[in-house]
Each structure stands twice: as C-alpha cells, then as structure tokens.
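Retro notes - structure team

What went well: the batch runner handled both jobs without manual restarts.
What didn't: labels got mixed up in the shared folder, which is why I'm recording both outputs here explicitly, each with its sequence directly above its tokens.

Job 1
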Amino acid sequence: MHTHDRQPDQGPAASTEAGRAHPVLNLLGQAGNRAVAGVLSGASESQPIQRVLAVRREPNVLGPVAVDTTTTDQEGNQTRIDGGHEHLTAIPASAGHVVFSGNPKPEALPANPIATFNALRSRCVAIAAEQLVTAESLRGDMKYWFAKVYHFVTKHELEAIDAGAYQYPLMKMQEVISFHATYHQNLEAWRAGQKDKVEGNWQAAFAAAESSNDGSWIRTQAHEIGNALLPSMEAHIRFDLPRAIAAMYEQHYAGLPNVTLADFHEDYNRMAPVFEKATADLRPEIQETATLGSYDPMSWGWLQDTGMPFMFDIPMERDHSWEKATTIVSGHQRGVDTQGGMQKRLEAYSTGAHPFSGSDDFDVDGRKISDYNWNNQPR
C-alpha cells in the first residue's frame, strides 16, 4: 500500500458567490481551525487574507544565520573557527618562550600556540636524536653521509627556531616532522629489503649511494662521498621538500582567512645559515675520511668550495622546489588529484618557467622519476 501517493482528503469544496472556493474555507479543510484563526488574526482591512497567506509563504530572505565561533583557549587567547581550523584573532600579548620573528598573522597561529609549540618542539628534538642513531648505524655504508648531514640540518633548524629566526616556527617544525616521516619510512623499507615500498626517488638515491666504492685510481674518496651525497640531496630537495610544504600548508593553514602559502616563503628563504652550519659540522669528518691513508687532491674542502655549486646549486634547486609546492597547491585547488595529472602539471610548469635550468628538476642520479606521488604525504 503506497500511502505516500495518496493525496490528503480535501473535503467538500465550499464556494463563494462567484463559484470559487473561499481561501479561509480551503485553509480550514487543509489545516483546521487553529490555522484559520492564525491567518485571521493577521488580516485587516488594509491587508486582506490573500496577502497574509502570501506573506506566510515567503521564504526567509535573510539566508542562514551566522554563528559566532569566537571563544577563548586555555592560554587566554581569543580564537575563532574558520575553514575548519581554530585560530587566534590577535597576537598573544605574551607567548612565553616562543619567539616569533617579525609580525606573524594571528590567523596563522592555532589555539594554545605555546602548548602547540612545546609539543612540536619535543617531537623535533626526538627526531634529531633518532636521526643521529640512524646515521651511526650506517657507518661504513655510503648512505651514512646524507643521514649524518640530515641530522645536522635538523639540529641547526631547532637552534634557529629557538633563536627566533622564523616568523612561523610552528610551520617549520611541522615541515621537519613531515620530512623525517618520508625519509625514515623509505630508508627502513630499503634496509628491510622491501624495495617495492620505497618511492622511486629514494630507490635511485639509495642505489647510487651503495654503488660508490672506497676509492680507486679513477675516482678519489672525496668524489665518492660527493657522489653518494648528491643523489640523496636530489631526492630530498626536488621531491620530498615541495610535497611536504604543500601538504603541511593544506593540512594546517588552507582555508584560514588572510593566509596563503606565500606567507611562509620568507621563512623558507631564511634557511641558508642552517645549511652552512650543517655543512661545517660535516666537513671535518669528510675531510678526515677523504684523506685517510692517502693523498687526495680532490679533498672535500676544495670540492665544497669550488666544485659543489656546479654539481648542485642548492639555492636554485630550492627556488624550483618552492615553485613546485605552489604548483601542487594550486593544482589541488583546481581539482588535480591524480599522480599522472600532477606530474604532467609540474613538468609543464618547469618546462615553461625554467627551460634550461629546470631540465633536471625530476631527476635523481641522472634518472628521471615520473611515478612520484605528489598528492600523498607519508605520516
């Protein structure tokens, strides 16, 4: 029995002198005496019943009622929810030991920023310690060199954060955590013999490091260390770096009012001292290893000072990586969410923007990586 197809019983139609049903009687048949009384109470000589009925049927022209999401967090900051994120409405009068460079936008700071800072920093300190343990476990393996310099980069990044070098230190630490997750998962899969679980950029980088030997009459030890380091630098800077930046922005900041990815570019460009200090920390060990027991005309100091920029221009590579991150974000905003679609988009941008210097933008150790998943950041 289809009760929904049955029309309500209208009752006998009452007619006026003109033979038409009076609206009051129709309403009585449909809604009862209470509805009629309500309508009549709103009618007057200047506003006949027909007009009252029409007014009752008019939609709400005001639209949805705005909801005030303003509240106060546990640290006493006023916050509001926008784009699914709870953020501050003003810079804290006191942020305790958290130091911001310049004038960050309050919209880019989460509720309870001090507690958030402490939690992120604790995780980054643990990561730096984990990276050192990993590096030491790789001694005697040419993958050691990147693992060690990676530890130094994290160490000096934390020092820069504590010194107040960055406008948005929370984003910097979110990036550190994201980078580490990618490198750690790929390295562990490689060491476990599960190479099918290793991303293409790291397959190429790890294989290149393991193919380097301990010195020969053709190649010097410094060159071999450089050859082991370079592919891992390519894997990290050309691939993991832009993906992580895009992912952290989309996860924590996209949709916030007055906040764009460009707001984090200045901090990105402030990292040169971090790399310089990390290189300085690694240099003595490479120098000692490269010259141990033999004369090495291509010692690491000479290679770093004169040869490395020609092999791998880090500032230029990082510029290209930032552009990749912005291209990933804008691609997602336009609905590009497949690996092939994003790869095509990135390659088209690189070819157009950098027809010469961008020719290696997707290479690791001379091998083009075309299956990297730009849309899926490991956690």
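Job 2
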Amino acid sequence: MVTTESTPKARPKQVAEHFSISAMTLWRWAQNPDFPKPLKRGGVVLYDIAAIENWLEGAKK
C-alpha cells in the first residue's frame, strides 16, 4: 500500500484483498460511474482506499 497526501492508496490486487473481494468484483465496481476513479501513473493503477470505503457506505443507504 502507498500513502500519498495522507490517504492510503493501493494497487487493484491489494484493494481486492483489503475488501475480501475478487479482482472481477473490483472491475465490476469500477464500471459504476460513481465509483472513485483510480490514479494512473506510468502504468501503475492506484485506488484510494478511503474513497472506496465512503463509496461503499453510500451504496448501503
């Protein structure tokens, strides 16, 4: 996991492990227009863990 600007970021595999989901589920979530967009730097994709947690909380309501 990478921490930038005090917000933890993680690669897709780490995100899937963090939320106990499959990579395919993460891909499906990412197809939702409301899902937090990842940062893409030099071929590396990083997701904001806190933003995904907030998105999940909003989805429960």
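One thing worth noting from job 2: Helices lie at 12-18, 23-30, 49-60.
We'll revisit the folder naming next retro.
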